[in-house]
Amino acid sequence: MGSCASAEERFGRPFSNHPVPAESLGAFRLLFGLVMFVGLVRYVARGWVEIVLVRPTFFFKYPGFEWLPVFEPLGLYAVFGITAMAALAIALGVAYRWSVAIFFTGFTYIQLTDVTNYLNHYYLVVLVAALLFFLPADRALSVRSRSRGRRTVPRWSVDLLRFQVGVVYVYAALAKLGTDWLVYGQPLNLWMTALNELPLVGPWIGEPWVAVAMSWIGLSYDASVVPLLLWKRTRALAYAAVVVFHGFTWLFFDIGMFPFIMVAATTIFFEPDWPGSDIAGKTLGLVGVGRIGRSMARMAGAGFGARVLGHNAPVPPVRAERSDRFRLEGPAARALLAAYLVVQVALPARHWLYPGDVLWNEEGMRFSWKVMVREKNGAVTYRVVDPSSGRRWFVSPHEYLDWRQASEMSAQPDLILQLAQHIGWDFRKRGVDGARVYVDALVSLNGRPPQLMIDPSVDLMEVHGGIASATWILPGPRGAPPTIRVATD
């Protein structure tokens, strides 16, 4: 097919069964598996298993998963080890379906152990792992594909991952359309003032105008990167922007593996025939990772030889698979795909159904891709009352939680409620019949003065969680956040 052919002529309509080269899906799987293997090994090596899962004595549970046990240390390390090996097997394409299933189970279990462990990119990993189980991502750049020639996949399998990554960026951009972010540069202003000791950039990085400028750059990046990656003419520069943007966030802010996950995930926007396509070679050459990519490909024993990353070797023509069980056939399969797309669009938008500011009340905050848009700090004290004698006890969360859990809990109403009810049942077991639990929760949002988040007159033992709006959460702050300026000599 001529080089002037349009993308639709070469690869078919979006979400169609049109056969496309399997390389881009294989490269996504390879990079995803390697990043997750490194991330899990890093987690264990830094002692975070001990800090996050071994030391705590109380764990916050997701609704419906209260039954899930937290294993003893030996079991926890076994889960991490097995999950890490499954990630490496995913990268190599070894026992692919089993490896993905084991990785998904292990990683999801780790995330479900405690709500305070939630991070947006961990949620993205769970979703991607679930999708990979149903996608033929081992047809290229894998041990399986080594001696089988060039393979194809249905275009919808590539587009589904593009959609999933695109949703993250779109909702991250929408989350930044607020005055705190765009007018006052918060919370970036708070975080950047802490970097004033850095060499060269330290003296000016704490200036308020820098935070505002960076906030606008962040919004512009999130809002434009997906269409720019989709358009072939701007793809190389767009991917370079991905690497630079996430590189800076990794250097300046402690956000774990998120930058690496996004740098790897956005490669799915390359043409389906990358790493064999010339545009992929130019793009990765532009950001300086071409040699690394070639090394990873050789490690995978993928059998794509000189084609990798734009090497100008003959490329076999693409042929459709004779029998492809991954084709979308029939209304049931298409309805299932449509349902998944609708859920991924609707779930992050559910907070609009609740009154008030989601950054304050947290109703619909999780699973909504609101990345780095709020800084909250809280001070919580529980009041336990014996209704028969009137005796009172003042209880600190630190009596039940470690410092990390207490910090996360102190600004999230549903977690404050969950611990309150745990404390209440604990006192009832000790003989305080009908113990009532109230809370004084002072919370600061994006640097504002602390104010009460929870109605202190409400007995939290009588509150029932659910999807309804929580009337026991007080309205959030109305005033503008402060502007922090670093003092200079």
What do you see in this structure?
The structure is a single chain. Helices cover 49% and strands 7% of the residues. The chain is α+β, with helices and mostly antiparallel strands and 489 residues long. The strands form two sheets. The protein has a four-stranded antiparallel sheet with strand order 4-3-5-6. Strand 5 (436-445) and strand 6 form a beta hairpin. The longest helix is centred in the N-terminal third of the chain and has 23 residues, at 23-45. The protein starts with 6 loop residues before the first helix and ends in a 37-residue tail after the last strand.
Summarize the structure.
With 489 residues, the protein is an alpha+beta fold. It has helices spanning 7-11, 23-45, 48-54, 73-92, 96-112, 120-133, 155-175, 179-182, 188-193, 202-205, 208-230, 232-252, 258-265, 278-287, 290-300, 330-346, 358-361, 403-409, 413-429; strands spanning 19-21, 152-154, 376-385, 392-395, 436-445, 451-452.
| Cα separation of the termini | 66 Å
The outline comes out as globular
Number of helices: 19
Largest sheet: 4 strands, antiparallel
How many DSSP E strands? 6
Beta-strand content: 5-15%
Poorly predicted runs of 5 or more residues: 278-284, 289-318
Give the radius of gyration. Answer: 25 Å
Helix content: 40-55%
Structural class: alpha+beta
The helix-strand sequence is: HEHHHHHEHHHHHHHHHHHEEHHEE
Mean pLDDT rating: 87
Strand arrangement, major sheet: 4-3-5-6
